[in-house]
Amino acid sequence: MLGPWSLHKLAAQMNILYLGQASGTTMHRVAAMERMGHGVHFVDPRRYLPSTSIVDHFEWQVHPGPLAAIVRSRLMGNLKIGYFDFAFVDGGNLVDARLVRELRSRCGKVVNFNHDDPYGPRDERRWMTYRSAIPEYDLVVVVREENVGEAYALGAQRVLKVFRVADEVAHCPVVLTESQRLQWQSDVVFVGTWMPERGPLLSELISLGVPLSIFGNRYERAAEWPILKKAWRGPGVADEEYRILVQCAKVCLGLVSKQNRDLHTTRSLEIPSIGSVLCAERTAEHSLMYEEGVEAEYWSSAQECAEKCWKLLFDDGARKVMAERGRRKFLASGNTSEGLLTRIFQVASK
Predict the structure, then answer these.
(1) CA angle 272, 273, 279 (to 5 degrees)
(2) Is the pLDDT of residue 92 over 70?
(3) Any bridge partners for residue 253, and if so which?
(4) Percent of the chain with pLDDT over 70
(5) Looking at residue 160, what DSSP letter applies?
(6) CA 196 to CA 258: how far, in whole Å?
(7) Sheet of 39-43, strand order
(8) Which of 163, 177, 195, 273 has its CA 20 to 30 A from that of 260?
(9) Do 7-165+336-349 and 178-333 have matching folds?
(10) What phi and psi, each to the nearest 5 degrees, are found at residue 67?
């Protein structure tokens, strides 16, 4: 059996129990832990529940508590006897307070990382069990300033606010083939799911003549669909296709979610990391991340966005220089998967 979790473990291999969804950026963090030399035992809590729409409805619209109880019973029953140095709960909507306590009996520390907005009004029912478990975590990691006070109000022991990240491997530039360029090239691209505030903005950009390509789901629900479908090129893309799509675009839009109270998103890091130009909504956090007009472009209206896009499209040299500067700024920021995990481990150890 390994000893208690302590600072010296930062320089040594840890045995980590990781609970999270087996997709998206979660797997980037798992891979980063492995690159850092740690042993990772990954568990997707959703695997303990039937894959049916009834379960999904109960989780999102009713109350995830009974589902979390099933997850707890089956997870602890299947977990191999032994000791983990660290438990990392990514998200945590199906992890209840009792499970966190039981994990602590097997792990030196139990930390929660959540880059959603489980404290806000959106998807409130889905996060009811998560919010009740907040006091049990040794550290709660959030990505919004508002979430710090909200987590403490729910009884959090310690809260760390961080920026989102891009992954060192999944979001680095690649050598593109000619066929890839032909398939994925675009002037101005937005990759993201439809949200109510996005339809009017994107449709106005199209009306202003911006050569826009949209990749994402649920756009057919938008009242502006008759206009948006002219620019819609397909559903959302992920992994290697996402990286190639961003790299093949001359300009990439960065839209934040008003419902999620975002001031930046993962796109804010991924786009410069991949090597393309970020043209994003002007927010306080975006302005902290990149210098406007030098490392990225910002806008506060569709008209200003269109003007910035055309400016970038008409000056290949300036656009390439901005992309290079943006990538250098991202790399210097430390807002990478390994950088994030290192900081979490350091803070949790204190």
Answers:
(1) 15
(2) yes
(3) 279
(4) 96
(5) E
(6) 9
(7) 39-43, 15-19, 86-90, 110-113, 139-142, 159-161
(8) 273
(9) yes
(10) -65, -40
Q: In this structure, what token pair is assigned to residue 95?
A: 């992890």
The pTM for the full model equals 0.92
- Yes or no: say if 348 and 139 are a contact pair by the CB < 8 Å rule: yes
The domains of the chain are located at: 7-165+336-349, 178-333
Residue with tokens 């990392």: 88
Across the chain, what does the average pLDDT equal? 93
Cβ distance 60 to 37 under 8 Å? no
Placement of tokens 């550290």 in the chain:
139
Give the pLDDT confidence of 74-91 residue by residue, as tens digits.
999 888 766 799 999 999
Superfamily in which the 7-165+336-349 domain is placed by CATH: Glycogen Phosphorylase B; (3.40.50.2000)
Rounded Cα gap, residues 190 and 173, in angstroms: 18
Side chain identity at residue 314, one-letter code: F
> Between 267-274 and 316-333, two packed helices, what is the crossing angle to 10 degrees?
120
Closest by CA to 192, choosing from 231, 151, 148, is 231
Mean pLDDT throughout 220-245? Answer: 96
Judge whether 148 and 273 are in contact, CB under 8 Å. no
Q: Which CATH number fits domain 178-333: 2.40.50.180, 3.40.50.2000, 3.40.50.970, 3.50.50.60?
A: 3.40.50.2000
Residue 79 pLDDT: 85
How long a stretch of residues is the chain? Answer: 350
Q: How high is the pLDDT of residue 106?
A: 86
Nearest CA to 185 out of 209, 164, 215 is that of 215
